[in-house]
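User: Can you predict the 3D structure of Arfaptin-2b isoform X6? Sequence below.
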Amino acid sequence: MADSMMSKAATMEIPISSNGDSRNLAEDDSLEQDLQQVMVSGPNLNETSIVSGGYGGTTEGIIPTSSIKGPAVRINTDFLGNRRIPNEGQGSNMDYVGSNSSMAAEEATRGVAVEKFDIMKKWGLNTYKCTKQMISERFGRGSRTVDLELEAQIEVLRETKRKYENVLRLARALTNHFYSMVQTQHALGDTFADLSQKSPELRDEFGYNAETQKLLCKNGETLLGAINFFVSSINTLVNKTMEDTLMTIKMYENARLEFDAYRADLEELNMGPRDAVTMARIEAAQQQYQIHKDKYERLRSDVTIKIKFLEENKVKVMHKQLLLFHNAISAYFAGNQQQLEQTLKQFNIKLKPPGADKPSWLEEQ
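Assistant: Sure. Here are the predicted structure tokens for Arfaptin-2b isoform X6:
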């Protein structure tokens, strides 16, 4: 039994030479530990000797691998750590393409990261300068660029928008109240008509009132069409046209703040020493100053043009809508149904048929 174990151990020995001298591995207490140590140590092909001997024999022949002549074999390792021998025709070309693709991907990733970092850096620097300028203006330490004529026009526009928003709010309230009154008149007319059928002694009186309420309801619906058109036009003027101009004004005010921030930065650098480093910083600050100056002047021109066009558009829209509102209200309360209908035709207002806004029974299912 002992001889059998020794013969197995002899066949598993792999001599390894570190300095050109061969030596045997030390035997451990168990064969399993020997096998694990051999697999972990990983013999070097250039330093490995081949042990030849019979199973259980006492003699062995050691043939150094350096004496074996043959073509060189390239062993590659895949991403799982497994060794593979490339086929003929592969080899360095595949390795070269793979390394180039990995390097290109790495460079692209690095380029994106650098670009994002530059964007964040510029944004942080711009935010810092603008915040510093804003605080300086609040405490009266910094100067700001002011266009007195344009600032007055902007203030008038904001005040006009507030007043028109109040007109819009009141017109909507009038529409809601008048709609409720029309619905009440419609219900009252139906009730009078029903009572005229069930009360023979008061048939004529209930009938007259039913006809009157139906006529008022019809005229009320016509007037509601005119008021709804008025409200829709005022809403477009206030919440779209004026709001668009105010958005441009907001962009203009932000550009003005940036312009003053970079102007103050340039003035501060000009008051400092004039060494080589400072001159380079002054040149860079001058470029940024010019960029923001051009942006500020462009937006100032846009605001001036938009305010002018807004004023012209406001006059045209309000002239038409106020005339409509006056004629419709006057005709309704004068009881002139023909003039009321003529007013709607004059302004190309088409009334929706009753129940047009209600969903069909198929849509309700």
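The beta strands are 16-17, 22-23, 49-52, 61-64, 76-77, 83-84. The longest strand covers residues 49-52.
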